[in-house]
Amino acid sequence: MFERKALVLDIDGTLTNSKKEITPKTAEAIRGIMKAGHALILASGRPTPGMRRYERELELGKYGGYLLSFNGARIIDCKSQDVILQRTLPKNIPCEVYEFAREKEAGIISYYLGENREDYEARGKSLEKKGIDPKGSYVLSAFEPDEYILLEARINGLPVITVYDFEEFINYPVNKCLITAPGMLAAGYEKELIARYGDTLSIYRSEEFFLEAMPYKVSKAYSLDSILGKIGVKRENTVCCGDGFNDISMIKYAGVGVAMANAREEVRKEADFVTGSNDEDGLVEVIDRFIMRGEK
């Protein structure tokens, strides 16, 4: 009897190699599981537009797949383009987190997504007055962007707009804010924000220099648990693969939790299996061993 499985993949350092590309071998193996009737979920801290390139490359609209963006605060069904899960920050939080970043002289960003009707209706006209395409998607920086903000924009293929009226501009529901600072400083800021908001927000670092402020209890694991039943997959039939701090929740949650060889030690410790690196097509071994075994 066929049991549907789900392969859940982080993007950076997992699905993509060091050049931020999906290799032909990995892409072929992934399409193979979708053709066989299994589910593919891309799970990333990226905003939704930053995942669209890989949605197109893997033809998720054709085969059926899901984009779990903002570390799980938003999930899209690629075939229908319906939003099947959405969590946003409390209205007061962007301003409060902005004040924290300003005091620390850290960077802070959020996002404007022209593909989101709510964002477009809230701030589209304001952008248009500034000569900015309101149907585009942007990284919104409260201050002159630092190297980490520029990296975030480059990874996602999004332009940066410096919004000096950040507190007034972010007057629509947002899925997350991101604070940026060198690793040692970010570690301290993480502790401070958890002490202040631990009962109302999810606070964690996705990279040493990226500090995420997310809706309460939102994580990749939380969001997977919310949708697996809807897509006909049992928890024990999920295989979750990642390499970063923000992948630990889903690796621990999965039926099989997989860390890439290039993953941080903290991530590898939590995994059931460590596969080859993202530059060695490590996902192909995972697919052969845990998804397609006995089906070829």
List the helices and strands and how they pair.
Blueprint: E1 6-9, H1 11-15, H2 24-35, E2 39-43, H3 52-57, H4 60-63, E3 66-69, E4 74-77, E5 83-86, H5 93-104, E6 107-113, H6 117-129, E7 137-141, H7 147-156, E8 160-162, H8 166-169, E9 177-180, H9 183-197, E10 201-207, E11 210-215, H10 220-227, E12 238-242, H11 248-253, E13 256-260, H12 265-270, E14 273-275, H13 282-291
Parallel strand pairs: 1-2, 1-12, 2-3, 7-8, 12-13, 13-14
Antiparallel strand pairs: 3-4, 4-5, 6-7, 6-9, 9-11, 10-11
Task: Describe what this molecule looks like in 3D.
The chain has 296 residues and is an alpha/beta fold. The chain has two domains: 6-86 and 219-291, 3-Layer(aba) Sandwich (Rossmann fold), CATH 3.40.50.1000; 93-215, Hypothetical Protein, Haloacid Dehalogenase-like Hydrolase, Chain: A, domain 2 (2-Layer Sandwich). 38% of the residues lie in helices and 22% in strands. The chain contains 13 helices and 14 strands. It has an eight-stranded mixed β-sheet, with helices on both faces. It has a six-stranded mixed β-sheet with strand order 8-7-6-9-11-10, sandwiched between helices. Helix 12 (265-270) links the parallel strand 13 and strand 14. Helix 2 packs parallel to helix 13. The chain is globular and about 55 Å long. The model has no long low-confidence stretch (mean pLDDT 95).
